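ugh ok fine here u go
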Amino acid sequence: MNSGSEHYIRLQKLYKNKAREDAQCLAKIIQDTLKCSTVPDSDIQSFCKNIRYLRIIRTSPIYQELQSKTMRNLVTLRLQNDEEESDSDELRFYILMRLIDRFYSKHRRFPGQNIDEVDISELKREFKEFCLEAGCNIVIKDDLVHEM
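structure:
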C-alpha cells in the first residue's frame, strides 16, 4: 500500500470538502425548516463535528415514568456513587433533560434565556433536589450542566 504525503493530503482535502458540503446541507435544512437562518455557522460546524456522539435513548412513556419509580430505580442501579468518567453519560443527559422540564414548569422559560449563571445555579439546585428525592449520590460534570 502506498502512503505518501501527497495521498494523505488529497484524502484530507476530500474529507474536509465532504464535511463542508454536509454542513452546508444541514444549514439549508435548518434555513428551510425555520424559514430564517438563526443558527450560527459555528454551531452548525460544532454539531457536525460532534454528531458521532449522538445516541438514541429509548425510554418508557413519560406518564409511566412519572407514575412509577422507574427513573429512581434506574438512577440507583446505574449512577449511585458512579465515577464521573463512565459510560452512563446518556442517563446523565436524560436526567438533565428532566431537570430542564422542571425548570420550565417553574419559570415558564428554558435555561439560558435570561442570565446563564442564575439558570445554572437553579439547575444545580434542582439536581440536588432530585438526588434527595431519589435517595442517591450522583456525580454530574459541570460541563454537562453548562451545556444544557
